Amino acid sequence: MSGKYDDIINLPHHVSAKRPQMSRSARAAQFAPFSALVGLDDEMEETARLTDAKPELEEAEKEKINRVLLEIRNNPQKETAVELTFFRPDGRKDGGAIITRPCTVRRIDEIERKLILNDRSEIEFDNILSIKISK
Q1: How far apart are CA 72 and CA 79, in angstroms?
Q2: Which DSSP letter does residue 10 get?
Q3: Domain housing 127
Q4: Rounded average pLDDT over 66-87
């Protein structure tokens, strides 16, 4: 039984004298899937990412936060351990994240209206949702 390609099937693979042989990764890249719309996948992931709306505090809650901030400011110790809930605005789209964590207040910057924490992060007063001194 003779096949259609019997005359060439056992010949050695052709090697060009003019061009260097491509590496496996370069050859594989020719067959890799490509995105016709560059960045579309990233944009779709960003759109699908959920953010929280910043909650509006009532006056009583704001007063409670102010009392705790005054207590921290008047504390003779330099640092105060607190349980802090705050809103972190998202850098890319509307909304952000509500974060609750224990932390240590290093100082209060009344001019910039910020809490400076031990880890050097800064929380604006307007983004504080609740604060409790840990005992």
Answers
A1: 8
A2: T
A3: 59-133
A4: 91
